[in-house]
Design goal:
The structure is a single chain. Helix content is about 30%, strand content about 25%. Helix 1 packs antiparallel against helix 8 (about 300-315) and helix 10 (about 380-395) crosses helix 11 (about 460-470). It has helices spanning about 35-50, 75-80, 115-125, 175-180, 210-225, 235-245, 245-255, 300-315, 340-345, 380-395, 460-470, 480-490, and strands spanning about 15-20, 20-25, 35, 55, 60-65, 100, 140, 165-170, 185-195, 195-205, 280, 290-295, 300, 320, 330-335, 360-365, 400-405, 420-425, 430-440, 450-455, 495. Helix 10 (about 380-395) links the parallel strand 16 and strand 17 (about 400-405). Among the domains are: about 110-145 and about 150-270, Sulfite Reductase Hemoprotein, domain 1; about 360-495, Sulfite Reductase Hemoprotein, domain 1. With about 500 residues, it is an alpha+beta fold. It binds iron/sulfur cluster (SF4). Iron/sulfur cluster (SF4) binds near residues 375, 405, 407 and 410.
């Protein structure tokens, strides 16, 4: 392989990450926004590598596994022209800027976040000195709509995790009196500390968002510059853990030349729900709908990609959006053409019903075997079998998040899921079989409950039971859960609380 830049811990298009089955390449798509032109170009590129599918990631970009040949100079230039690769190769691995996949079309949002996302991305791309940042440095922008990516979920562990998070909020006259700020649109700043987003209580005027993000980024960069270049750059949450939030904000204020003031008495941000984008929803633009589609494990074949591009061209406005839930949105579909598009999606295997009313499980799986040497199990294959099993039963009244991970590192989903399956090898008299430790989490408990280990052959039936219980009693308490599980799942004394994750 003749990569342009050295391999780093996160892949881009200029360098791949080594895996058992070849190289992993990731295409950067800020805010998950994709034109049909870009979608077709990616499909053709992937086909030229002899690969038949891509996967939507949990940062709303696309990744390709099993790449055997580095992209040619010509290909890289084409990707740069299409906005799918950074102009400065060393900046390519910086994580996708994340925003709601329904920005600009959500009837409830306070503001369309796309101009701000573009401005921040342009800033990052125009500053080559930022190449020293950890590739895991991440920024999220939430416009306050129904589909949030910030810290607005009523369930804390469902928060999409970013290092820097801005969430829009409109202050009316009464809230203005509480906060001392003039009425208008503001952005609340949250920072990732100790593995969760924490509100700083700092409110930022719209015209100051870019300077504030730039200051926070440059303060972080300046600290990295004090470390030897041979060291792995510290992640921002680690730095914040050492400095404390107040010190970091003070340094950013010095960089800005004015203080970042905390507001002490402020209204709560309105709640959002994950997966609220799936199915058919009216847009803020009259007569138009957006369609949220959930491909199994976020995987799209190249033929599905080409067909989706065609659908978006024919029925929409040539636009597609990737989401951090490994799903996608087809915007701008006239209301009277929804069923036409739905029937195409059913034919493509991307929906179970024409009106997209059937809920599908939101199954997330890491690479697993054979791609990852650390994996105990074939998480992708098992995730696919589990999804098909649940889909065939059509038992879900709403999407439910199920996470399969091949080891405790939890690459695919750092936040807990309703059901987590942690891969393991189970000893049998004659051999080992692939199986999973099963963890359950309800909407309010902050701890995981371990239900025991099971061979994969038993997992689809067990998960179906859990899903059924979950739907019957969503806000089940621990005591009730113990009783119900012992009666229904026969896990008896094995159950225990623990945290399976290991972020390393
Ligand atoms: S979670 Fe573990 S098994 Fe899965 S891809 Fe990451 S390192 Fe590999």
């Amino acid at each position: 392989m003749n990569w342009l830049a050295d391999a780093r811990s996160c892949p881009g298009v200029f360098y791949g990450t080594v895996a058992q089955d070849g190289f992993l390449i990731r295409l950067r798509t800020p805010a998950g926004l994709l034109s049909c032109l870009q979608m077709r170009a990616i499909a053709q590129l992937v086909e030229s590598w002899g690969i038949d599918s891509v996967q939507i990631t949990n940062r709303a970009n696309l990744q390709v596994r099993g790449v055997q040949t580095a992209p040619s100079q010509e290909t890289l230039q084409t990707l740069q022209m299409l906005g799918l690769a950074a102009q400065v190769p060393e900046l390519d691995p910086l994580r996708n800027l994340m925003t709601s996949p329904t920005a600009g079309i959500d009837p409830q949002e306070w503001v369309d976040t796309r101009p701000l996302v573009r401005a921040i991305d342009a800033y990052l791309q125009a500053h080559p000195e930022l190449a020293v940042l950890s590739p895991k440095f991440s920024i999220g922008i939430d416009g306050g709509g129904r589909v949030g990516i910030g810290c607005r979920s009523p369930v804390a562990w469902e928060h999409r995790y970013n290092d820097i998070q801005l969430s829009a909020m409109r202050l009316d006259a009464s809230a203005s009196a509480l906060t001392g700020l003039a009425p208008g649109l503001y952005w609340r700043l949250a920072l990732a500390v100790d593995k969760r987003l924490q509100d700083t209580s700092v409110w930022i005027a719209s015209n100051q968002c870019l300077p504030v993000v730039a200051a926070l980024t440059q303060v972080y960069r300046a600290d990295i510059a004090t470390h030897p270049p041979t060291e792995k750059p510290p992640r921002l949450p680690h730095l914040l853990h050492d400095w404390g939030m107040a010190d970091y904000l003070h340094r950013a204020s010095q960089h800005l030349g004015y203080p970042l003031k905390a507001v002490t008495d402020f209204p709560e941000l309105p709640a959002s729900q994950p997966y609220a984008h799936l199915g058919v929803h009216p847009q803020r633009q009259a007569g138009l709908c957006y369609l949220g589609v959930s491909p199994v494990l976020g995987r799209l074949t190249t033929s599905q990609m080409l067909e989706l591009a065609q659908l978006a061209d024919t029925f929409g406005r040539g636009e597609l959006r990737l989401t951090p839930w490994q799903t996608l949105v087809l915007p701008h579909i006239p209301s009277d053409r929804v069923r036409d598009v739905g029937s195409h999606l059913v034919a493509l295997g991307l929906a179970e019903s024409e009106d997209l009313s059937t809920s599908m499980p939101a199954i997330v799986a890491c690479a697993g075997k054979p791609g990852c040497s650390k994996a105990a199990t074939q998480t992708q294959t098992h995730g696919y079998i589990l999804a098909r099993s649940l889909n065939q039963q059509q038992m879900l009244d709403a999407p439910i998040n199920i996470h399969l991970t091949g080891c405790p590192k939890s690459c695919a989903q750092p936040s807990p899921a309703q059901v987590t399956l942690l891969g393991t090898l189970i000893e049998r008299p004659e051999s080992q079989v692939e199986g999973y430790h099963v963890y359950w989490r309800d909407a309010y408990d902050s701890l995981q409950q371990w239900l025991g280990e099971f061979p994969f052959t038993e997992i689809p039936a067990l998960v179906a039971q859990l899903v059924s219980l979950y739907q019957q009693r969503r806000q089940i308490s621990y005591q009730v859960l113990q009783e119900v599980l012992q009666q229904n799942v026969a896990i008896g004394e094995k159950a225990d609380f623990q945290d399976y994750r290991d972020w390393g």
